[in-house]
Design goal:
8 helices; mainly alpha; 0% strand
């Protein structure tokens, strides 16, 4: 094997790599916040008393969880314009990621909510709290404490899944790797660097989310002790 590594030839593209990293981080941050918020609302409807909404959200979750993400992305970007809904590549990509994370986080959060002792609901009712107050202030914090590892893992999966957005020309990390490879023909070096960047981002994101969740739950425990 006579192949000689040539990482030096990739260095002139450092600006493109940095821009790809920045866009990937921005997309991940926005879709994580919106996707988890959608998951909370979806879980609230799933455990609520309205059977129609329960079934509607349940059907939505099953559709998203049992279809490929790239098909969902293509449907939003290429399919919706056929009925007059035109979106930019970035808008379509972010919507697809939010929808995908929203569906998965709905089930994760629902599982956490349903694993909470039913006595918590009764205690809240005894205190005269409304259903929404019990859900937000009593049930949800306990549920998040249980499901935070699974939810964090799902957020990381979504971040890594953002690589699919390169298929509709969103200039994130994978698009950057394809661009560099097309200019230098250094496939190994280009994708090796981007793979390493994804690894660092995934580890960093897991650390940030884990640290944040521990701080939030610690503050809640301190408030409850007071």
């Amino acid at each position: 094997m006579d192949y000689e590594l040539d990482f030096v030839s990739v260095l002139p593209f450092y600006k493109e790599i940095l821009n790809g990293i920045l866009l990937t981080i921005e997309i991940t941050a926005a879709t994580t916040i919106l996707g988890v918020a959608a998951g909370i609302m979806g879980a609230a409807l799933r455990v609520g008393k309205n059977k129609f909404l329960q079934n509607l959200i349940g059907a939505f979750v099953e559709v998203i969880r049992n279809t490929p993400f790239i098909v969902q992305l293509f449907f939003i970007f290429f399919g919706l314009p056929a009925i007059g809904i035109k979106l930019t590549a970035l808008e379509a990509g972010m919507i697809a990621m939010v929808v995908n994370l929203g569906a998965y986080s709905t089930e994760i959060i629902r599982a956490g909510v349903e694993s909470t002792c039913s006595g918590q609901w009764e205690a809240g009712k005894t205190l005269g709290l409304r259903w929404s107050q019990i859900f937000i202030h009593i049930i949800l914090p306990q549920a998040f404490n249980r499901i935070s590892p699974a939810l964090i893992s799902q957020c990381i999966i979504v971040m890594l899944g953002s690589s699919v957005l390169s298929q509709i020309s969103v200039e994130e990390l994978t698009f950057t790797a394809n661009f560099i490879q097309s200019r230098t023909f250094l496939s190994f070096e280009s994708y090796f660097i981007i793979t390493f960047v994804y690894l660092v981002l995934a580890i960093f994101l897991r650390y940030v989310l884990t640290y944040t969740s521990k701080k939030v739950f610690k503050m809640n425990e301190m408030k409850e002790s007071l």
